[in-house]
Amino acid sequence: MPERTARRGGHIVDLDDRSSYRQLDPGGMLDFAISFPAQVAEAAEIGSRFRPPPKPRGLRQVVLAGMGGSAVGGDFLARLCDSRAAVPVVVCRSYDLPAFVGPQTLFIASSYSGNTEETLAATSAALRRGARIICISTGGKLRDFARRHASKKGVRLLSIPQTEPKMPPRAALGYSFITLVCALDTMDVYAGAKRQVRETTALLRRQRDELGPAAPTRRNRAKQLAESLYGKIPWVQGTVGLMSAAAYRWRCQFNENSKMLAYSGEYPELNHNEVVGWEGAERLAGRPEVVVLRRPQDHWRNRARVNITTKRLIEPKAPVHLVEAEGRSPLAQLMSVVYLGDFTSLYLAFLNGVDPASIDSINVLKKQLANLRRPRE
Fold this sequence. Notes:
This protein has two domains: about 5-25 and about 205-350, 3-Layer(aba) Sandwich (Rossmann fold), CATH 3.40.50; about 35-190, Glucose-6-phosphate isomerase like protein, domain 1 (Rossmann fold, 3-Layer(aba) Sandwich). By secondary structure, the protein is an alpha/beta fold. It is built from 13 helices and eleven strands.
């Protein structure tokens, strides 16, 4: 296995020797990944015990408000519900709500910290419009909001645990997503979730052994991908639906964990725009490398599009890695791909010589925004 020189301190990082990169992970991000199957199992129990608010009569839509790692569960839920739920799921990443939110809306406010300002603003607006509200949080202002309005029959708090050491929202996907899936099962919005969670948990436990730090590079797909993507620009493409949502998660994990620019796209849409851009790939300052996420149930024309696009149009310009989702159920397939991406992004962080937990740029932005005063209108 070729050794890589990390960019912090000039020391050597060997992915098969955890001691060579342990000091790069003071926040324990790799341990969070290793314990993710247990987190999913615990989250399923929390969600199954949840007492939801009464479902709105004539429910028309589910709206999830969140940002960053707290919103990605909404992306996944929306794609899972496309073929199973009778109502659409819409993700709101904004201070402002869609105009259709009202008494026939189930509104979910997701903020791991409970202090995400965009989510708090949207939740207050949802309350004024009479929506039924579920607040998912470990604490903060969102928990206070839910408790303050607990006497109203349409507001409930879905409390998720705060770990020690503190877990970043992107590492808490089980708590923010699986709890929600199981809670919506109790409301008959996403029926059958509990059966899918059982398969998912078993699959994740197997993957943990295959992708974790103890598994050597020669048979560890995540380590192999990290080594191949080292020094490159990751370009993640997913087939429409679940794999598109997973591709966006990969991109965000490369951004936050690996401290790398990354891009994501979706089949078949990218065949109507992005594919032409590959004609000029040699002019890029960095070297792109493509990861394609797909599942066996993809429309046969989309599978053909992936094959033609990668073999004829991309591979002459950049290496391509094909990732096939594992498992039977949609939830298991989704999480199998997500888990591979999470480990890959962490190994890339270590090869890059960076702390995967740090988010210095986001903290600078928050500090600057905190000092701003609202302009007079």
